[in-house]
Design goal:
about 10% helix, about 200 residues, mainly beta
């Protein structure tokens, strides 16, 4: 399970409202930085850099924000990403400033590693039925992902539920403990029925 913030520098934005179309044509994405006790800011960032950070951070890894020409940093999470449905590109991003002393909730991706003895013994496959887990933690202690070693699935009928996943003591599971995370699917066996011949008269 990985933690830690990703650095991102933003620039103050002067073009507003309809004029932001010019920014997008120049490969720049408008960003809105806001949060409790924080004066919201209209900012911007080069599209390539911002997309790279958003891809790495997802919704659970905090982003350490600095603003060009200003001192200090803000810890934030990506909260809303607006896409252009026609061109499939980002048109606007909202970043929520987080209080490092207050727990936040997030959906953290579940990643399988290793091999399952139970599946291997019967030539089966591990089916992942839950890809994200809802958890709560302080911003800097939020896991970037939850890794599960499939070695724990030792039998063909083994199942993994959310309550079976061991989390760090500073991370609280919000997903229901009985939620199914993974199971082993046995290979399909085709049954060929024998067709009896029909005797002639």
């Amino acid at each position: 399970m990985t933690t830690g913030a990703i650095d991102l520098e933003l620039q103050p934005r002067e073009l507003m409202r309809k004029k932001v179309k010019q920014l997008r044509r120049d490969g720049i994405i408008p960003v809105h930085l806001y949060g409790p006790g924080f004066d919201s800011r209209a900012l911007q960032c080069q599209a390539q850099r911002l997309i790279g950070v958003l891809s790495a951070a997802g919704g659970s890894t905090p982003i350490s924000i600095t603003i060009q020409g200003e001192s200090g940093t803000q810890l934030a999470f990506a909260r809303e990403i607006q896409w252009n449905p026609k061109r499939d590109d980002i048109v606007h991003v909202d970043l929520l400033v987080a209080d490092t002393s207050r727990p936040v909730s997030a959906q953290v991706s579940i990643v399988f590693v290793g091999d399952s003895p139970g599946a291997r013994n019967v030539s089966g496959t591990v089916m992942q039925t839950l890809r994200f887990m809802d958890v709560q933690a302080l911003p800097l202690e939020m896991p970037g992902q939850i890794e599960i070693d499939l070695e724990i699935l030792t039998e063909p009928d083994s199942v993994l539920r959310a309550g079976d996943i061991e989390l760090p003591p500073n991370v609280t599971r919000l997903t229901d403990a009985d939620e199914l995370v993974a199971r082993i699917e046995l290979p399909r066996v085709e049954v060929v029925e024998e067709v009896e011949g029909v005797e002639g008269e």
